[in-house]
Amino acid sequence: MKPRHHLYLDDDLTAQLEALAAKPGSSKSAIVADALRQYLARRGARDIDEALKIRLDRQSRQMDRLERDGQVLLESLALFIRYQITVTAPLPEPDKAARAVGQERFQKFIDQVGRQIAGRRRTLAGDEQGDPS
What pLDDT shows up at residue 126? Predict the structure, then answer.
């Protein structure tokens, strides 16, 4: 046997419930039970949604910081390149020795960046590991 409950509903809600229950194959108890079941299910889903919302908000803030940091790095690199280009005189075309030295220095730079990234070391991290050699 199912437990019996006594509910008090306002006039408008009572009229709507009676209109729904007037349809063949439905009863007030079944309608109220279905509505209550759906309400309780949504309430549980709302708790999950709140937990996910907090987590997504945190991840969104982290992504915003990463984007900002990337923009700072790109702008710093662009300013450094602009500065370097303006203060360094171009090499004359026939000076092959100077170009070879420049190419060698660039290759050393690329190798150093590769070692830093592979070793998960960062020059700006403030540790002793990042000294360029």
Answer: 57
| DSSP one-letter code for 124 | G
Work out whether the CA dihedral 74, 78, 79, 83 comes out positive or negative: positive
CA distance 15 to 17: 5
Q: Copy the structure tokens of residue 39.
A: 């309400």
The pLDDT tens digits of the residues spanning 5-61 come to 888 889 999 999 999 899 888 898 899 999 888 888 787 778 888 888 999 999 999
Handedness of CA 104, 107, 113, 114 (dihedral sign): negative
- Residue pair 17/31 in contact (Cβ under 8 Å)? The answer is yes
Who contacts 27 (Cβ-Cβ below 8 Å, separation ≥6)?
A: 21
Virtual CA dihedral for 69, 72, 76, 78, nearest 10 degrees? 110
Q: CA-to-CA distance for 31 and 15, rounded, in angstroms?
A: 13
